[in-house]
Amino acid sequence: xxxxxxxxxxxxxxxxxxxxxxxxxxxxxxxxxxxxxxxxxxxxxxxxxxxxxxxxxxxxxxxxxxxxxxxxxxxxxxxxxxxxxxxxxxxxxxxxxxxxxxxxxxxxxxxxxxxxxxxxxxxxxxxxxxxxxxxxxxxxxxxxxxxxxxxxxxxxxxxxxxxxxxxxxxxxxxxxxxxxxxxxxxxxxxxxxxxxxxxxxxxxxxxxxxxxxxxxxxxxxxxxxxxxxxxxxxxxxxxxxxxxxxxxxxxxxxxxxxxxxxxxxxxxxxxxxxxxxxxxxxxxxxxxxxxxxxxxxxxxxxxxxxxxxxxxxxxxxxxxxxxxxxxxxxxxxxxxxxxxxxxxxxxxxxxxxxxxxxxxxxxxxxxxxxxxxxxxxxxxxxxxxxxxxxxxxxxxxxxxxxxxxxxxxxxxxxxxxxxxxxxxxxxxxxxxxxxxxxxxxxxxxxxxxxxxxxxxxxxxxxxxxxxxxxxxxxxxxxxxxxxxxxxxxxxxxxxxxxxxxxxxxxxxxxxxxxxxxxxxxxxxxxxxxxxxxxxxxxxxxxxxxxxxxxxxxxxxxxxxxxxxxxxxxxxxxxxxxxxxxxxxxxxxxxxxxxxxxxxxxxxxxxxxxxxxxxxxxxxxxxxxx
Length: 625
Known about the structure:
The protein is mostly helical and 625 residues long. The chain is built from 40 helices and 3 strands.
């Protein structure tokens, strides 16, 4: 016997095998259960016990920490009498909470079969910190079963903070945030809703996606919307706007998002967005697929918001097509710069001046690029610049980086005329535009700069202000080329040139045949005589090509020339005219008014004997000696 015991062939159950069983505190059926437990047979959870208390008393404590004891009737009894059988109850629960497959199976089946789970769940929540993780993340329960269990669990909780501490705040928060349906119940359940609302507040829940509930789910849905227990997302904001402002906001929500939100009748949404403006912009606004056409006031409101980083504001500007009408309403230079770069400023001279002043009276690259935009310079060209913007105007006038087309249009807005501009580095086109727009006065500085840096452009200035040029002609440097350009200018009338001719130095006329020729032509065209020396008169005749024009000049200056000099001039007309002064010669000339007048002069001067009309020609009769 000693050897059988020491070898383990006989244990404390031996008496059960050699004795006859008589019912008493337990039934025959109960006895069979006891034997199964002690024989380490797989438990049968639904095994029906008849005298449960007797079974609990009969089986020793050590068996209550084994899986073979798992039985629904025993668990029900222990839950109801846990103070009386405290040790056995604790061992059973401890074994049940070890997360073994058998334990989890028992829990799942118990929950599925028992209508009243409150006591069981209450105890598990306190004893097993992994209960919620198992039910809501690891188990195979359907979503509806999970929703129901969450309700029952929450109704079991007496101390929300203790519950969260044991089961894990992050887990519960993540669970609710990922699926709002945990909070919706088909019927009013005030205790659950009260617990859930406390939970939302303690966890500062932000539900990822709100779903509109059916009619019976209204309470917590309203709580979520009014107390902002949701994450700021496009879908959530859209749902709330439709709920409180109607379906008609759907269109404006897509293309004027912030304006639509700001005008919502649901004030908690407005406050929530404005209190979390950076999150709203980064998570919603900048991710919208469409460009935004915001109300200008709301657009400026975003750009002035001190809770938004300037980098974010720049991204907003790139997203919005609305233009700012008055740049002065904004103080940040980087924001103003971005508005210009993105063409989000109305093209007015007030806005140009504001940015120019903001940059310490400097034309920055972004402003130059803005001015060079077709829409901008076209709009500006129709508006006169304020006369007080002199610094801006003069800086634009000498800016070579503005496109030529833009420059040409913009200067139409300027009414000023400048005596001294440092325009020597401007392109030739821009100088042409300034001359065309009469932006240069007839000053020595302008004349000299044009003459030195822009060949022949100073003559255009003279054309623009010819009278002023003549009045102050001694202040302007002139050489033969300048004189020739003036005389040949199509921008100066013949009458003006005739007024100018007396101011020309005779040396220029004698040295430059082109000047002499042009003056002769002008004199002949108007029969306008000037008080020239004989040398000049001779030069005019010499540089006149046509015989008839030479004759006209001689006739015009007849009274200023003696006989010898007139003879020289006539001889220079041509070979036939030389014969007039050869004795006994009778040269014949075409019968023209000029030839007849010339012959009359010669006859009156007694330089020829006479002349007569012969066969429609004029024949001169020379002196005999």
